[in-house]
Amino acid sequence: MTLATGRPPRTPGNRSGYFTVVDPSTGEVFDEAPDRRPEELDAVVDRAHAAWHDWRADPVARKAALLAAADAVDAAAAALAPLLTREQGKPLTESHAEVARAAARLRYFAELDTGTQPIADGRPVHSRLRWRPIGPVAAIVPWNFPLQLASAKFAPALAAGNTIVLKPSPFTPLATRMLGSVLAGALPEGVLTIVTGREPLGARLASHPGIRHVSFTGSAATGRAVAAGAAATLARVTLELGGNDAALLLDDVDVEEIADRLFWAAFRNCGQVCMAVKRVYAPARLYARVVEALAHRANTTAVGSGLDPASRIGPVNNAPQLARVEHHTARALADGGRAVAGGHRLDRPGYFFAPTILADVPADSPVVTEEQFGPVLPVLPYDSLDEAVRAANDTGFGLGGSVWATDLDRAAAVADRLECGTAWINHHGELSLAQPFAGAKDSGVGVAGGPWGLYGNLGPFVVHRPREA
Ligand code: NAD
After folding, report:
1. Phi/psi zone of residue 261: left (φ > 0), alpha (ψ -120 to 50 degrees), beta?
2. What whole-number distance in Å separates Cα of residue 57 and Cα of residue 168?
3. In what residue span(s) does the Aldehyde dehydrogenase domain sit (predicted)?
């Protein structure tokens, strides 16, 4: 047998300089990754600086390299996707979609051009604005979409003409390392460096004096620490943080017609999606039908190893996250909630939790007020629409939200009242590469996605010169 990495199997242990990686579908260690020490970052960032001089100088070569990199990612999908599933847990089809998205993102940003813009203010000078690269970028990424979120950082940073040092989560370092090797075939040396390791590696990277932009995706608590670290060097920060998205069903909704989409908006990637539906608000008249429709799907969806083609939902990614999901669920049940589907771990090896639909949960239970980030969905009844909108907005987060209805104009009017960065009607979670992606409130700082994501990696440079006589 060979592993998806192409290497023969071996038994990783506590080898000095390495940390172990667990397969969440078995709970067993299956590989290891280099445990880089914080002080090693000095040489890495120095190399990123050295590589920056040539990389920023030639936009034509840069575009060609990024397009070649996209092709290389597509060509490596058959190796990348199973390794991603092995360490992350998600079904193989979702891993393939993640790899394809990484390649698409490279192509999207390679084609963007900010150009040079005149500034016309009536004064007798020619003022021209150009956007210039700012220097080495640090990227810090979580474990739920390792490749997709890595590409959301390196594609715009590299297209802007910056170099980048990227740190994946210690729970999912392997596919990102493989992606780094694939990209190394298309990019000049030092332009993109993947560093793996445990804390305080991320903290050091976020506060390294050679870094000009820290682009972080993860929890709000870590985001605050990252922003504090970057304050020491006055590096720019972009923070994509957590969410507690509400789905608001209106009283004309066709429950059966939307139930599949609503269910998967909550349970895709085992619910470990920043902009998953994490709370459903249903009109009291339809409450029982909504609960029943979701519970039916939760009870009949195949849960298992992501490498098994029959599985639609994989395991939770890691033991601390599973403990968090269990804790929130147990508390909701103790608070008077009912598990209409699931409500417990599955009695098998690995980090499996039964897809769970909770009814009758009090609005102040942590599974409603906090981001539980797992395969658990509370459904709450409401009597008046104003009350439902207030409840949907009653959270420190503001990433996304959705309204589900038959009358689309009425749904759009309700969507306008949601305090979040993206609102959907009759679906939830889909993002265009060309749209700005930003959270309101505690869900983030700065903008990723589309041209705004590119500008986030650039600085304005203005030249004034007198008009010719
Ligand atoms: P996390 O905050 O625990 O870790 C994220 C990354 O930060 C990891 O690479 C981790 O090793 C690193 N890290 C940990 N401590 C650090 C420190 N002191 N300084 C610098 N880096 C440090 O998050 P997680 O548990 O890996 O991911 C789940 C969270 O990510 C959820 O809150 C989820 O909503 C959020 N998320 C947000 C988005 C978004 O785009 N808004 C997307 C995906 C996930």
Report:
1. alpha
2. 28
3. 17-454
pTM over 0.90: yes
CA of 186 to the centre of ligand 1 (A): 28
φ/ψ (deg, to 5) at 443? -85, -5
Nearest to 103, CA basis, from 139, 72, 144: 72
Domains of the chain with bracketed CATH: 2-241+443-463 (3.40.605.10), 245-432 (3.40.309.10)
Q: Retrieve residue 454's tokens.
A: 């590119």
Residues with Cβ within 6 A of ligand 1?
140-144, 149, 167, 169-170, 199, 202-203, 206, 217-219, 222, 225-226, 240-243, 274, 371, 373, 399, 439, 444
Distance CA 393, CA 410 (A): 18
Cis peptide preceding 200, ω within 30 of 0: yes
| Mode of pairing for the β-strands spanning 376-382 and 277-283 | parallel
Residue whose token pair is 């029959």? 310
How confident is the model at residue 3, as a pLDDT?
41
Mean pLDDT per 10-residue interval, the chain, length 469 residues: 44 84 98 98 98 97 98 98 98 98 98 91 88 98 98 98 99 98 98 98 98 98 98 98 98 98 98 98 98 98 98 98 98 98 98 98 98 97 98 98 98 98 97 96 97 97 86
